[in-house]
Design brief:
The protein is built from three helices and no strands. With 124 residues, the protein is mainly alpha-helical. 6% of the residues are buried.
Length: 124
Amino acid sequence: MSAGIRGAEVRGRDVPESAVHVAELIVSSARLRELHECSALLRRTRLRAGEIVDEARAMLAEAERQGDPERIVALDAQLGEARQAYYKVFNAYLTICRRINEERQAILRTQTEQGRRTGLSGAA
């Protein structure tokens, strides 16, 4: 069964509904795991980008103390580029965090709906 097959398509093949839910949960969990891996990579990239911004800021401050106008202009431009790169990574990180939250909510909704159909409740 390919990952692209949706629950409704599988149900049309006389697969028990619980098997469909298990398969959907496995696919959702795999997507969530991939999103977490991307999130971890973006988190490390964001931290490194922040370090680069700090380094560029320090270099600019040093050039300003030394009164080197050419270096100041060049380093100011580099600091601007470093900040732009940081914000791109930061926005990507926020986007993936939102996607992780959406995926979790979808999994919870599916589990809740399945519980209602089977008569199970979330109460212990």
